[in-house]
Amino acid sequence: KAVVSTQSGHYGRDSRIFLGRNKVMALSIGRTMESEYKKDLHKISKGLHGKRGLLFTNEKVEEVKEYFKSHKKLCFARSGSVATETVVLPEGPLDLPHSMEPHLRQLGLPTKLKDGVIVLNQEHTVCTAGQALSTQEAVILKHLGNSMAEFNIELMSHWSDGAFTVLSESGTAMDAADDDFGDEVIEDANEN
């Protein structure tokens, strides 16, 4: 059985992906050489931080890489994401339901309701390319249907039969010191 750590997502009918608390997943496969389930699995657990998970599959590494390389999706950007384009709304009517007008005003858009149609009082710049999106900007872009982010999965590392391999440049950070887990303590039930 092979273990591939990923940025997040789903793969294959005969595969299983685990997304959850990284520290719990790391504990289950072993955080140190002494506690690892199989040889060198602790190296995988060092890379479990941020938005990462584990993919268990019997597929060949090259097949998994190709699958994830070809499966990318546009999605709505979240707060903190960097805007890929400048979005400017012109003065005039917006093609949104009239019931959204109070919400749009709360988000900072200069709107009014005129004959049941939401009207923008003046030109408004929602976001500027290269700058981080605020929560309000991300919500406005979502209401406008503007997909500014891309969902993709990056394979970071691979483990199979005791052999650990780093698959991406981002995965080189996994060679850090043994204690990447901070001060939080999670007790192993087998140690008690």
Task: Describe the protein's architecture and organization.
By secondary structure, the protein is α+β, with helices and mostly antiparallel strands. It contains five helices and twelve strands. Strands 2-3-1-11-12 form a five-stranded antiparallel sheet. It has a three-stranded antiparallel sheet with strand order 6-8-7. A two-stranded antiparallel ribbon has the order 4-10. The chain starts with a strand and ends in a 26-residue tail after the last strand. The relative contact order is 0.22.
How would you summarize the topology of this molecule?
Blueprint: E1 2-6, E2 16-18, H1 22-29, H2 41-46, E3 53-57, H3 61-70, E4 73-75, E5 87-89, E6 92-93, H4 101-106, E7 111-114, E8 117-120, E9 124-127, H5 135-144, E10 149-151, E11 157-160, E12 163-166
Antiparallel strand pairs: 1-3, 1-11, 2-3, 4-10, 5-9, 6-8, 7-8, 11-12
